[in-house]
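User: Hi! Is it possible to get a structure for several chains at once, not just one? Here's what I have:
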Amino acid sequence: MPMKLPFFKPKKEIPLQEELTSVPEHVAIIMDGNGRWAKKRGLPRIAGHKEGMDVVKKTVETAVKYNVKILTLFAFSTENWKRPKSEVEYLLKLPKEFLHIYLPDLMKNNVRIETIGDFDSLPGFTKEAVQYAKEKTKNNDGLLLNFALNYGSRSEILSAIKLMMKDLDNDKFSLEQLDENLLSEYLYTHGLTDPDLLIRTSGEQRLSNFLLWQLAYTEFWFTDVLWPDFSEEIFVEALMDYQRRSRRYGGI
Ligand code: V07
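Assistant: Yes, the chains can be modeled jointly so their relative placement is included. Here is the combined structure:
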């Protein structure tokens, strides 16, 4: 008498790593839809943010698995300060909570943590937790996990211009030397390649002041899936789509 087979939930087939031949080196993600996810379930918005935090961890693991080199995540925008005080407070506690839970795993995965944005204006408890993680992971040479924290692209460009004008004034360079590469050196993203792929969840198709300069040549990929429902399957779908597009260009 054969044993009764256990019940397996049918799982969508995830393509093998070998099938992904041209993986984007730098992926940037606008993690939208946490509030809507919570509302749909009759939960407070912060419950969506908390769930979204766990999805960050899973997304990092997928990025590591498929050999993405840089993952830039829009965690907190300069506009987010306009939200209710209690929500802002909760959001700014998430970096510390995330690192408390996941820093050991990130170390094991050889992940380096960095941030872009106005770091100095963040509350002390956020800065301290993130600074500690940056220090702790600074020698890791696997995935660069780059959090955009208190980030706004126009203010980034404006601050770059101010710094450049100061350096110009101090004869650090001449006006003739000022070109796109030099300007890039003054942005928060100095030293990083531009994103190859931008993903935005939750059906919105706007940039919302994210990496305006850096996304000039980037492929955009949008999904209606809300950030807390983002999964390896959907991430891989975006990676496959990127590959398909880059193959098409290659063919011309
Ligand atoms: C935040 C969870 C993801 C969905 C989007 C909004 C809420 C992880 C971090 C984080 C940031 C820096 C760091 C380690 C972790 C985070 C904020 C919000 C403000 F070094 N998730 N997450 N930070 N959300």
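The CA atoms of residues 60 and 145 lie 8 Å apart. The radius of gyration is 20 Å.

User: Great, thank you!
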